[in-house]
Design goal:
36% of the residues lie in helices and 19% in strands. With 548 residues, the protein is an alpha/beta fold.
Length: 548
Amino acid sequence: MNFIGLESSQKLRGGFYTDPVIASFLTRWIKIGNPTSILEPSCGDGIFLQMIEQQGIPGLKQVTAFEIEHDEAEKARKRTHLPVRVLDRDFLRWFLFKAQDEDRFDAVIGNPPFIRYQYLPEEQQLLSEKIFAQLGLPFTKHTNAWVPFVLASIRLLNPGGRIAMVIPSEIFHIPHAASLRRYLATQCSRILLFDPQEIWFNDTLQGTVLLLAEKKREVSGKSKGVAVIPISDRQALSENPERQFQRAVYANGVIIEGKWMPIFLTSHERELLAQLRISPNVKCFSEVASVDVGIVTGANKFFLVPDKTVEEFALQQWVHPMFGRSNHVEGLVFTTDDHQANKSVGLPSNFLWFQEENIENLPSNVRRYLEVGLNQQLQKRFKCRTRRCWYKVPSVYSAPIAMLKRAHNYPRLVLNRADAYTTDTAYRIKPINIRSSALVVGFVNSLTCLTAELEGRHYGGGVLELVPSEIERLLVPKIDDSTADLNSADHRFRKMKDDLAFLREQDSHVLGKIGLTKKEQIILHDACVRLRNRRHRTPSSEKVLNEE
């Protein structure tokens, strides 16, 4: 996680402006609803206002726009001759304290700010929390500014009104958007998401989607659900958005309960997954292993050091083998040879564990090293200052298996033969009624990898991340492989040049053992690869006409 001081001013205020092609597409769609009133809750320099004017919406009487940055609000006012009022104030505050019953709109359009909760000023944090409370929705401090913006916008829509917005693709999977997903599903008759296969806002490394939703005319009305249309490039936005909205295939019911990732699967893929969930040969991860976070040092660069530091301060008595990154672990097994190899190339693979609480009882060389930490103000860091002794790391133990928190291609388990410790960038895994070797070998397969894509979350750069509750829901084939099988798989993994070829080999071995046919293995593999490719989306090569 970055600290606020390391982020750009653009990122801190969520100022990633919209390409006119995108703005025009969204405006064409809301125009179909013949709105007399339009809301733009974060108008920036006014690109959507310009598009509304260019579209020439008959019967439009009023446009209300908000922009908290005074200079940008002034640009927006000068960009259009519409009957528009641009208010240079906080939209969230206006919604909570100024909006009247008559402040309802036929359409909402825009690109709400993408700002992490911890980067928001305290006042906006409180406003965000109040919006969730007013709507009776669960709140989490992991939320992002765009979520309360969309929630408030839906609340301000008239029955039958339309909302068209650019939002992060994390809407499908991130836990902090769960309340929004539920609110959309209960308030809207149809929800369509256009899913670009490229990153359109290159500076963010953040995938985006185009949200088109129509509010129910009656609260008790039924919803058709959620649909997704993948689009390869901006050329697809030249098509008629209304025709796509009407013709899309919407999913409802259990498919959109919780995360919306199952929408990306075909009906055949979903049926096969449902069958495997009740198979006696397939278990939830929580049935075969426990998951615990790795060691939380509070300052990994201080407590996890290379040999050079150990030698400089003569700390050999206090070091223990440790790993926590993918470049520390090349295979499916971590051995003492791997640890020595890491040390030989200067990787920080030595964990410093000081257990003496009375600093005066420690040798002078250790006190000298601790002084380095004090000079770095480590004792004031949250995890360190909450300890009775800032340098005494708690909960230090190793586990027979480790799992890295993040993965680029697919997650894997690592048998910990070196009895090494792991940082909080890895999880400590203890098998339940299954041999460690069998669990590690059986974990790499397209079924488990597919459920990881469905259950996990991803951020900029396309890295997959899983937290313990998500790991516990993964589907794992239960096989009875031996140590020899693991050694063979470990050797092949280290030598592989094509990770998907290795995955197919694993499918034949692991999924074949539990009775899946070749056709079923291919179905799971193709679904897994499709979701992974989506996660790995790359920046667009097309020129963006209107980014800051």
